[in-house]
Amino acid sequence: MPIPEILEHNAQQWGREVALVEVNPDKGPALAPDLSWNEAELVMPDLHPGYRKTLTWQEFDAHANRIAHLLIARGVRKGDKVAILLMNCIEWLPIYFGVLKAGALAVPLNFRYAADEIRYCLDLADCSVLVFGAEFVTRVQAVQGEIPKVALQLYLGADCPAFSEDLWGLAAAQSSEKPAVEIVDSDEAAIYFSSGTTGFPKAILHNHAGLVSACVTEQAHHGQTHDDVFLCIPPLYHTGAKMHWFGSFLVGGRAVLLRGATPAWIVQTAARERASIVWLLVPWAQDILDAIESGDIELSQLELSAWRLMHIGAQPVPPSLVKRWQGVFPGHGYDTNYGLSESLGPGCVHLGMENTHKVGAIGVAGYGWQTRILDPDGALVPPGSVGELAVKGPGVMLEYYRDPAATAAVLRDGWLFTGDMAQEDAGGFIFLVDRKKDVIITGGENLYPVQIEDFLRAHPKIKDVAVIGLPDHRLGEIAAAIIEIKPGYNATEAEIMDFCAALPRYKRPRRIVFDQVPRNPTGKIEKPRLRKKYVGESLVAQQTQH
Fold this sequence. Notes:
Blueprint: H1 4-13, E1 18-23, H2 39-42, E2 52-56, H3 57-73, E3 81-85, H4 92-101, E4 105-108, H5 115-124, E5 127-133, H6 137-142, E6 152-156, E7 165-166, H7 167-171, E8 188-193, E9 203-207, H8 208-222, E10 229-232, H9 239-250, E11 254-258, H10 263-272, E12 277-280, H11 282-294, E13 309-312, H12 319-328, E14 333-340, E15 345-350, E16 364-365, E17 370-374, E18 387-392, E19 399-400, H13 404-410, E20 411-412, E21 415-424, E22 430-435, E23 440-442, E24 445-447, H14 449-456, E25 462-472, E26 476-485, H15 493-499, E27 511-514, H16 527-545
Parallel strand pairs: 1-11, 3-4, 3-5, 5-6, 6-7, 10-11, 10-12, 12-13, 13-14, 26-27
Antiparallel strand pairs: 1-2, 8-9, 9-19, 14-15, 15-16, 17-18, 18-21, 20-21, 21-22, 23-24, 25-26
Helix pairs in contact: 1-3, 3-4, 8-9, 10-11, 11-12
């Protein structure tokens, strides 16, 4: 079943029910100190136009059909690639499904891409159409002479620039009926780009069967029903947010798109929209807990009884964070999901809500998936030993588009080699140790930064931490901890070193740096940025000393 058929089923089954909600705090009323709103203001939409928008399932499907007919009328054919460069908004998903209904491939782009990265990705994915929003006019304009393959540029927003055409104005004149395009499960459906935390992004190709498998896997893990309300905060261009929503999509559950990620807005929107499922990134969960503990958020003022599940993915989750969360929200189910864009996001490894006693593990093979932990020769390692995690399942990518060498390096006999180092305990639970490329070799010993980071995050003053390797003339590399302190706190290097005395000596960081820890929009630590900043400084220091 190609994935647009799920949308069509939902439109027939629950046509008049709300499918999508967009909440835009920037256009809404100001929050009072107790996080409450004046209800009288909210029932008068003219006071806050654009604050809250909704689409029913019928409207969602009709908009997607109009987009599909527009693309077809403008020459888009089955197999063409359509890039989507938008901030999260209520139009995002109808555009995405409109591209798929036209038989084309959706190519979501990271909204943080600079102009040269936009140009690179459009060229790599062979995009012939670009859909973009007002926030990107300057960047798109800057590459006008460098994207000859892009024959059609469609703009979403007011004040359409001269080099593009008005998407919504053109689409409004198109039919709302299903287009006559035959799509089968094996047809290519989407190209996603890797996060770029280990280099320039690669183009990851998936088909319709893979997208549908993500719906099934997610719903099997978290038991979404038609009555669940999914609060979506992460960017829709990434597989993480969208594939978690897919579990609700499969059963016609409502999604709320929140444009903004402050602690107050997250919990307030969860309360007002009666959200039952909220997927958070580590920094957001930490910020919410900090705001509650500092008194900036008063839970007694909020009705959060519908909230049943908080889950996290996209990066290693410190057990100390989960313990804090369960102390504040004892009634919440909790889950950790592991995945990659190459495996269609979350779900190939899954902790399970029933396994909170195993917090710290990323879990076991997800629904429909298999896992192995292998040594460099491809042999299984015994329990407790570290090896590379490989996964196999229905969401494994077809290939890295136009990159057969990179594809061959990670796809072997249907197994996807993740580049993540892991170990399995006697019970079969997998613990993520680190990225293969992030392993630090110091004096012949392998250090896994995630283990040191998890330890340091238990310090009450530390908000976030990243451990990287710095060159050392004697040991080869040393571990350096880049530490972000919680607002309102101070800490010294000596204090952190004293705390680290509980670690084995070889695991203790040799250098402490107080700085912000950069994360990308999906929550992953941007270690290349930190290495670029601090490895150079370290080399200069060594040259000065010697």
